[in-house]
Design a protein that fits this description.
Blueprint (H helix, E strand, L loop, with lengths): L2 H13 L7 E4 L25 H10 L3 E6 L4 H10 L6 E6 L7 H11 L6 E5 L2 H9 L3 E4 L6 H29 L4 H8 L1
Parallel strand pairs: 1-2, 1-4, 2-3, 4-5
The protein binds magnesium ion.
Length: about 190
Amino acid sequence: MGDERVKTEALQIIGMFQVLPRLVVFDLDYTLWPFYCECRSKREMPSLYPHAKGILHAFKEKGVDVAIASRSPTADIAKAFLDKLNITSMFVAKEIFSSWTHKTEHFQKIHSRTGIPYSSMLFFDDENRNIQAVSKMGVTSILVGNGVNLGALRQGLIEYSKNLNTIEKNKQRWLKKYSGNSSSSEKNDKE
Ligand SMILES: [Mg+2]
């Protein structure tokens, strides 16, 4: 499937959701591209997973920002590859540095750079420890098994909507519980 075809399908998937994340964050190695860039040479021509480019362009077209969170120790190679792939300018933030934290530091930086709350972010990564750590921050985080693809995109948007619904329901529950003049609490008082 060519990039344009993937983009069209990605736009159809995105179009099925009423609420979208404000920012989608991608890992690099084994999420956007099928290798560890630290094992490659800057002189090589890299390639992305087959659906990656179409998905990135679909998000951009829908007005959803995209960013990178990578623990690659070779940011120079990663950045050279993003340039060669012609996608550097698509990202509103590129946090690429090795760290002992499982990307919580990367997300703190992305948050302070963009001002976007964690609950409005969606994250794709191939390592479970990163998914665990970042989802605890409130980011909807999706583990990818074979790079980011249309299936992962659909799953990500479903999970994001579910999480948002949960947040909204909890908010309503709190409002009901703590606003003295809501009808439900009046009723409860009389009972
Ligand atoms: Mg990775």
